[in-house]
Specification:
heterodimer, A: Aspartate Aminotransferase, domain 1, 2 domains, seven-stranded mixed β-sheet, 40% helix, B: 136 residues, alpha+beta, Sufe protein. Chain: A, three-stranded antiparallel β-sheet, 5 helices, 3 strands, disordered C terminus
Chain lengths: 407, 136
């Protein structure tokens, strides 16, 4: 028997791995020192634990110098620090930034703030697959461009951008390159040297670590990236981020990176096969369902599907006592707008309303996937019986061509 | 989002799901909303010679509250005269289902669906009702 409820929303957050928690326990109890206390053993122990964690994070992303890791409260802060920090520092050099339409709000809204402060931002569109066009990126770069911020993998559709190519281009043009790797870190191989990444954001709670802690990788040479701190105080983290270090969180993040790195090869294979089992199972049983975004350039654990003629929230309502997934439907958000990510891909609003995101993770099993398939199929079929759109489609009516009386 | 027990009940056991023959002159069909807005309701009524709604059916594409609003609407119009059915207000639906503010548009849509079905019935039966074509 499968244990219910089943959690399949690992893009939203992940549980702390028991091994991570175990590593954190001393720092939460006896070894509570402040890593900045230089004159007693409590401080030394804390500092040692932090530096160990720093090395593990650096190792996961291919950084050769652990000093390049700056601890933050999470990826939102890392993104804010990267974008605002670079913008302020290099303002004299230029006032132009480049990002893309399907970035996380932590990047898009930071860009809006910078625009209000007089910076110019180019937001690149994506194609049907969810990828930016490298030529468009090349053409967007001017001598006033100081930063390119393109995420590694998207949180809704799991699509992975051509980060290595973007890094190469940024190098050629002498532009700093930031990537939000919240969803990618620990899931796919990352090497900031090979990829030419100058700044990289990551978050602990997306990779089986605790909430409230993350990191920003800041390149130290070729080029040395400088940032204006966004938090003033005691000058922690090479002056880039003041505030007493969250030692238990940092230790947890370090251990989470270590585990993810050690198990990545096998785990990504396992997740990929679970994902394919889910995709194939749903496709076998249901007609008119569509995968959103590229299947080729995609995280192994992500599936985003539109179930035509069935509104996403009603679909969730049918399963959410047993299964935790999320929807791109407007009804699940406060704005009444369906997913801007799917819209940017050119997915029609009608289909955007019917999308469900599945995020598989470390603790999912084959049995769970089979159960999710079974319940999804039952619920979609039941709701299609209730759907006037499904009825019309079966009668051969082209729904796109109907003149709808809008509210 | 948490749903009221009544919304859940209509979602789990929708009343009067289905379709009536559109061409039947005693049937009025209302279709409101749009797919890109995430809500489409189809509500149909079958009206007796005495002007009583003797049957009602619905199909809805939309969230749980939209399904519940239209399911409740069919329950309420059944057995009522057209004049009585026209008195059903969206606020009655909001109250009965305990809809939160963000879901009020679902009840508005259900009221619109009732009115659209009645208008369609009048259109087919000019002279059948007191409003005599005005509703179309």
């Amino acid at each position: 028997m499968v244990k219910l409820p089943i959690y399949m929303d690992y893009h939203a957050t992940t549980p702390i791995d028991p091994r991570v928690l175990e590593t954190m326990m001393p720092a939460l109890t006896d070894e509570f020192g402040n890593a900045a206390s230089r004159n007693h053993s409590f401080g030394w122990k804390a500092e040692h634990a932090v530096e160990e964690a720093r090395s593990k994070i650096a190792k996961l992303i291919g950084s050769e110098d652990p000093k390049e890791i700056i601890f933050t409260s999470g990826a939102t802060e890392s993104n804010n620090l990267a974008l605002k920090g670079v913008a302020e520092m290099y303002r004299e050099k230029g006032d132009h930034l480049i990002t893309m339409a399907i970035e996380h709000k932590a990047v898009l809204d930071t860009c809006k703030t910078l625009e209000r402060k007089g910076f110019r931002v180019t937001t690149l569109p994506v194609n049907r697959e969810g990828l930016i066009d490298l030529n468009e990126l090349r053409n967007a770069i001017t001598d006033k461009t100081i930063l390119i911020s393109i995420m590694m993998a998207n949180n809704e559709i799991g699509v992975i951008q051509e980060i290595g190519e973007i890094g190469k281009l940024a190098k050629q043009k002498g532009v700093i390159f930031h990537t939000d790797a919240s969803q990618a870190a620990g899931k796919i191989e990352i090497d900031v040297e090979k990829l030419g990444v100058d700044l990289l954001s990551l978050s602990a709670h997306k990779m089986y670590g605790p909430k409230g802690v993350g990191a920003l990788y800041v390149r130290k040479k070729n080029p040395r990236v400088r940032l204006v701190p966004q938090m003033d105080g005691g000058g922690h983290e090479r002056g880039m981020r003041s505030g007493t270090l969250n030692v238990p969180g940092i230790v947890g993040l370090g251990r989470a990176c270590e585990i993810a790195g050690a198990e990545m090869k096998e785990e990504s294979k396992r997740l990929f096969s679970l994902r394919e089992r889910l995709r194939e199972g749903l496709l076998r049983e249901l007609d008119e369902i569509y995968v959103n975004g590229s299947l080729k350039n995609r995280l192994p654990n992500n599936l985003n599907i539109s179930f035509a003629y069935v509104e996403g929230e009603s679909l969730l309502m049918g399963i959410n006592e047993e299964i935790a997934v999320s929807s791109g439907s407007a009804c699940t958000s406060a704005t009444l707008e369906p997913s801007y990510v799917l819209k940017a891909l050119g997915v029609g609003e009608d289909l955007a309303h019917t999308s469900i995101r599945f995020g598989l993770g470390r603790f999912n099993t084959e049995e769970e996937v089979d159960y999710v398939i079974k319940r999804m199929v039952e619920t979609v079929r039941r709701l299609r019986e209730l759907s006037p759109l499904y009825e019309m489609a079966k009668e051969g009516v082209n729904i796109q061509k109907v003149q709808w009386k809008k509210e | 989002m948490a749903y009221s027990d009544k919304v859940k009940d209509h979602y789990d056991h929708p009343r009067n799901v289905g379709s009536l023959p559109k061409e039947d002159p005693t049937v009025g069909t209302g279709m409101v909303g749009a797919p890109e807005c995430g809500d489409v309701m189809k509500l149909q009524i079958k009206v007796s010679e005495r002007g009583v709604i003797e049957d009602a059916k619905f199909k809805t594409f939309g969230c749980g509250s939209a399904i519940a609003s239209s399911s409740l609407a069919t329950e309420w119009v059944k057995g009522k005269t057209i004049e009585e059915a026209l008195k059903i207000k969206n606020t009655d639906i909001v109250q009965e289902l305990n809809l939160p503010p963000i879901k009020i548009h679902c009840s508005v849509l259900a009221e619109d669906a009732i009115r659209a079905a009645i208008a369609d019935y009048y259109k087919k039966n000019a002279g059948a009702g007191p409003e005599d074509g005005k509703a179309s």
